Write the structure tokens for this entry.
Amino acid sequence: MPLHHAVLALLSEGPSHGYELKSRFEEAIGPQWGGLNIGHLYQILDRLVRDGHVTRSQVAQSDRPDKTRYTLTPHGQDELRTWATTAWVRTGGFRDELFLKLFGAASLGSDAVRALAESQRQTYLSELAGLTRLRRGHTDDPLVALLIDAAIAHTKADLELVDSAAQRLEPLARRGVTSHEAPEEPEARERGAM
């Protein structure tokens, strides 16, 4: 539940309203994460209230509808501390569409693997250029800069992987082409034997 815990972290700075939380999240985490859907945020807040991590109160406004204010509870503070100080362990494996594409390309042969690798290489180089420009614009924001640095490191690792893919998948690609070659018809074999 990482987004739930990120909302708890935002509320540790003080009570807040839904749209304020959305803005603060996007500002704190930066453009690399992407926007936070307000409907999803309100679902998270409802769950946090249900679980006793957050309380909800109404703030009257004279010229608009009342605002709902969310406040972190001591139970929510404990949950945040436990989550934020415990190591993250990958549990879902490494699901990445690139590996499915490499599998598909290998089934088509070496030329397909090389074409995918080159296309993907150009995409990663373009991403690196964009991330580098983005990083220069966030030198004063340490958390956003760290997230962009992580994206750069991941992209460089992906680039190294794709650069080695054609050579490493050559045996698989040869098998893929061989298994796709049409079997010779029995009549053709008999004619060839004559």
Notes: Confidence is low (pLDDT under 50) at residues 179-183. The two ends are 71 Å apart (CA to CA). The longest strand covers residues 54-59.
